[in-house]
Amino acid sequence: METSTGTSQGSNPPYEDKDATLSPEDLSEMLAAGTKEVHEKAENTQFVKDFLRGRIKRELFKLGSVALYHTYTAMEEEIERNKDHPHFAPLYFPAELHRHQALACDLEYFYGPNWQSQVTCSQATQRYVDRIHQVGREDPVLLVAHAYTRYMGDLSGGQVLRKVAQRALKLPPTGEGVKFYQFDAIHSAKAFKQLYRSRMNELDLDMDIKKRLVEEAVKAFQFNMEVFEELEEVGKTIQDDLLDAGMPVHGTLGGDISKCPYYAAKMAASGGTAYVGQLAMAVLRHPTGQVLFATWFAALAGLAAWYLM
User: What is the value of pTM for the model shown?
Assistant: First the structure.
């Protein structure tokens, strides 16, 4: 069962499906509106766009996993330290959300049993980690912004990103290398996100604190972009080991394109000329691609105003 603080003790917590009318002053709404601009910038980083098109180098994916490991280890250390803090306790879901152990499994798969001696924390990641530790020590309420930015994004797009990586890197279908994206303790991502947002909105916070949380969430996005940009620079020095998958990755994901955390809104708003051209060429090469294209385009048409979180 789930305790009053939000910690789930069982394997199937009773996620609430609250249907209350949201207010612009609700924290979840303020965070979504306040991070919209920086979120769009994150969508437009070359690293993210290449990833979502399946153009991800194995070595670069490994380094990305290293960065995530250090980020989540820091965040979850501070969450554990502050799990009883009244402004964070209702959002404490370690069994459902914590990722550092899953990332450790991914790194062991890529680097072997001695992976810890082979990886280091990059400069951009260290700045992110330092900020998380500072927040946890000095102003724990701001952990809400970091948890929201990371976990809600992971839940919104994790399955799509997992399938992109599996296809592009020829990873095993059994999940090795992409444990990070698998939330085994969450049976309905939609219901869990509704629960999490409702818990955020019920926190006893004044407007000043809410505004500070929005500012911190913007900083979290900026830290993520710095990591993306750093990876992009490193990628220029890595030999291109991309495998020709034959079709753009979204055409055969088998997942819901609307869950893609960075790509769908951007392509819908811009018209996606370059991507559509690539997809059309794929259709010419693959007869079955006509059906996939029709499905993709129909989903995309309804996402012009779609926004993650």
Answer: 0.74
